[in-house]
Structures are given as structure tokens and as C-alpha cells.
Write a structure and sequence with these properties.
Bound molecules: FE3-S4 cluster
CATH architecture of the largest domain: 2-Layer Sandwich
Number of helices: 17
Helix content: 40-55%
Radius of gyration: 21 Å
CATH class of the largest domain: Alpha Beta
Oligomer: single chain
Number of domains: 3
Largest sheet: 5 strands, parallel
Distance between the termini: 62 Å
Number of strands: 14
Strand order of the largest sheet: 12-11-10-13-14
Shape: globular
């Protein structure tokens, strides 16, 4: 991979140890994936923040901070294992809380914004065509597909390395040719709500794997629903970019010519999705027939203001059943916007716990006495059995509200 003089200097360690380590990671990645050079990035988003998942990598962060590592571009971080303000109501000891705070302070010490959300795009505008180095597969999918920005599926270490250098290797989804579609999904059934889109995502992700799906037949789909689609596809497959005909920015740009849209000038494979397959996708995300699971969960990825509003409307005049719990997870930024409109007060009055900075997947759910959940998120339903060891019921939001309220 070609390096400029300045990049060579960093690689030789002339700008300090931490920049050198970061540059080594980027050069190794660039060499593996055949990148021709490094390109500047607008921002980095780093995963690997929860004490539950970070493990020994804390030592690596400690070392970087001791050596004075500093982010060179705006950088944000993913959720951690607890709500920083309400941790005492969670299954978290003081020691665990302090260990989690230490991790966050290590990132902050490097100049990283302690956003603690998987929806950094709600906090800061992302311009179409800009290059990013984001970890967190749902955010990657959102940035590439809905915002027309460009990022590969970074891991925590490579996103951090990119933050410390301010650049990323130019390969994969940074290049026009890799952003063309190759897997046509013809949706032949009407869809509505995050769970329909999550079910579709879980289904398509398995078939598409790392290809770029292009959807036809999706009408009047909101950004919230497409967020759910992308998150589920990134979980069940490794989809980092998709297009929706007539909707997403790159389809609109490329709609003039097939050679600009399709990698081979036409779809490599076409699949059809009908109502029966969608129903099967719901069943495959449900691991247990339990009627009223221990915990209802909404907010994977973290809720937008309109999603908070939707839950508040559905909960009007209702209360969470005794002995059951209902969590809604969002970012502190979205929570403060929703607070102004009185939405949070309404949710809390109905018995919903609104948690920020965290989610069910990265917190200690079993320790909270939860053995089963019900959710409208395809991604959470897909991951919860593996990462939280709980049973899952996957359902539509109005149905969830009906089941867990009185
Ligand atoms: Fe976000 Fe947690 Fe889901 S980090 S995308 S809410 S698994």
C-alpha cells in the first residue's frame, strides 16, 4: 500500500508510539485487503465498550492512554454495560460500575466523545459521500445505505486505529465498484413496522451473506423501519450496504443505468419474499412459545424520537403488568429530545424503564433475573439467545404492548 511521507514517518514511530501502533494496524489491514492507499475519514465510531464484552482489551486501552493516544478526528463510542445514571437499579455491583467508568474514561482521555450509543447518526450529521471508519454493524448499514456515506465493517481495534490516525485503508465499500448490487430481493407482501422489517432482514441476511441486496417492492418505508432491516441483515449475515429501489440515495443516483447499479450489469441472484416466508421468519426468531415473557424490550438499535413516541402512544391508558418489566433503550441525546415533549414522563408513568448508554445485549440480563424476552427487534431477537442465554419471543410492537400491559 502506498504511504505518503507523513504516513511513513508515523509508521517509523516519529510521531509517537500510539500513532505508530495504530498505523501498523491500518497498514496490515490495507495489505490484507489490497488497499492502494489511506484516505482521510470524517469520523470513527468504536465498538467494544461494555465491560461484559471487552475482556483483556482493557489493558490495551490502558497502554494507549498512558502513552498519550489522541483521536485525530471526531470519534464516538458504542453502548456500555449499564445506564450511567440508573446503574444502581441494574444487576451491577459498585466494582463493576467503576470498572465500566474506567473504560469510558480511557476513551474520553483519548479525546473520544463518550456517546455510548449505536445510533451516532442521530447526534451528528453524516454527509453523503464522506468516508468513515465505523464499527457497530447496524450503524455501518445505516450510514452506507440510508446516508450514502462510506465505511467498511470495522472492528473495535481498526476503528480505534483509524480514529488515532484520522485515516482508513481505501478498499471495500470505499470504492464505487463494491457498492453495486448483486442480490435482488423482490418483496411481494406488504410490510409495516420495525418487526416486519427486522424479520425480512433476518431472512435476507442469511441468503445474502456479504453481498449487496437491492430491494424492490418496499413502499412507504420509514427510516426507522429500514434501520431495523439493516440491523437484522447485518446480524444474520454480514450485509453492510443495501439499496431500496426508489428510496435509498445511491439507487436514486444510479437509477439511470444498469451497469451503474449492478456489479455484473444484472442481479447475480433474485429471491422472492412472500407473506408465508415472512411469517416463517417471525417463527424462526422466536425460540419459545411463552405467553408473557419476563421482559419486553424495544430499542435495538437505540430508539429514535419517533420510535419513543410510537411506544408512548401505544401505552396510552395502559400499565406494565405486575411482575413484568418493559425496557426501552435509547441514547442520552434522543432521551433529552423526547423529555422536552413529555414522552419520557408518559413512558415512566406507564411503568416502562427508559435506559440510556446500554442495551439488553451488552448488559447482564441473566443476572437481572431475566430468562425470557419479547422484542420487536430482529437483531436483538437474533443475538439474545447467544449473547444473553435467554428465550425469545419476536413480535410486532402493538402485540407486545398488548401482552405485557393491563
Ligand atoms: Fe445497539 Fe445493542 Fe442493538 S448496541 S444495535 S441496541 S445490540
Amino acid at each position: 500500500m502506498y504511504l505518503t511521507r507523513e504516513e511513513e514517518r508515523i509508521l517509523r514511530g516519529e510521531e509517537g508510539y500510539t500513532s505508530q501502533v495504530a498505523m501498523r494496524i491500518l497498514v496490515a489491514l490495507g495489505d490484507i485487503f489490497g488497499a492502494d492507499r489511506l484516505i482521510p475519514i470524517e469520523s470513527a465510531h468504536i465498538s467494544g465498550v461494555s465491560h461484559k464484552t471487552l475482556g483483556d482489551a482493557v489493558d490495551f486501552l490502558e497502554k494507549l492512554q498512558e502513552e498519550g493516544a489522541k483521536a485525530r478526528v471526531y470519534s464516538s463510542i458504542n453502548p456500555c454495560g449499564l445506564d450511567l445514571e440508573k446503574w444502581a437499579e441494574m444487576p451491577v455491583t459498585k466494582d463493576l460500575y467503576e470498572a465500566q467508568l474506567r473504560i469510558i474514561s480511557l476513551y474520553s482521555g483519548m479525546g473520544v466523545d463518550p456517546t455510548l450509543t449505536c445510533t451516532p447518526y442521530y447526534l451528528k450529521d453524516v454527509r453523503e459521500g464522506t468516508h468513515l471508519a465505523w464499527a457497530e454493524s447496524s450503524a455501518i448499514s445505516y450510514a452506507n445505505s440510508l446516508l450514502g456515506a462510506r465505511t467498511n465493517r470495522e472492528g473495535g481495534p481498526s476503528a480505534l486505529a483509524a480514529a488515532l490516525v484520522g485515516k482508513t485503508p481505501r478498499y471495500g465499500l470505499h470504492l464505487d465498484e463494491n457498492r453495486k448490487g448483486d442480490y435482488l430481493v423482490d418483496v411481494q407482501t406488504p410490510l409495516e413496522g420495525a418487526s416486519d422489517y427486522g424479520a425480512l432482514g433476518a431472512l435476507v441476511g442469511r441468503g445474502a451473506e456479504m453481498r449487496v441486496p437491492v430491494f424492490s417492492g418496499l413502499k412507504e418505508c420509514s427510516r426507522d423501519w429500514l434501520k431495523s432491516l439493516g440491523a437484522a441483515m447485518a446480524a444474520s449475515g454480514a450485509v453492510a450496504l443495501y439499496h431500496v429501489m426508489g428510496v435509498t440515495p445511491e439507487w436514486l443516483l444510479k437509477s439511470r443505468s444498469d451497469s451503474q447499479l449492478w456489479r455484473e450489469g444484472k442481479p447475480e441472484e433474485t429471491v422472492k419474499v412472500d407473506g408465508r416466508q415472512l411469517k416463517d421468519a417471525y417463527s424462526s426468531l422466536t425460540t419459545s412459545p411463552i405467553d408473557v415473557p419476563d421482559l419486553a424490550f424495544v430499542g435495538c438499535p437505540h430508539c429514535s424520537v419517533s420510535e419513543v413516541e410510537e411506544v408512548a402512544q401505544l401505552m396510552e391508558g395502559k400499565k406494565v403488568k405486575g411482575g413484568r418489566r418493559f425496557w426501552l433503550c435509547t441514547s442520552r441525546h434522543v432521551k433529552s429530545l423526547a423529555e422536552k415533549g413529555g414522552l419520557i414522563t408518559r413512558l415512566e408513568a406507564a411503568g416502562i424503564k427508559v435506559y440510556c448508554d446500554t442495551c439488553i445485549i451488552v448488559t447482564w440480563l441473566k443476572e437481572a433475573g431475566v430468562d425470557s424476552i419479547i422484542t420487536n427487534s430482529g437483531k436483538a431477537a437474533y443475538y439474545a439467545p447467544q449473547f444473553c442465554n435467554v428465550e425469545v419471543v419476536f413480535d410486532r410492537l402493538p402485540e407486545i404492548v398488548k401482552r405485557v400491559t393491563e
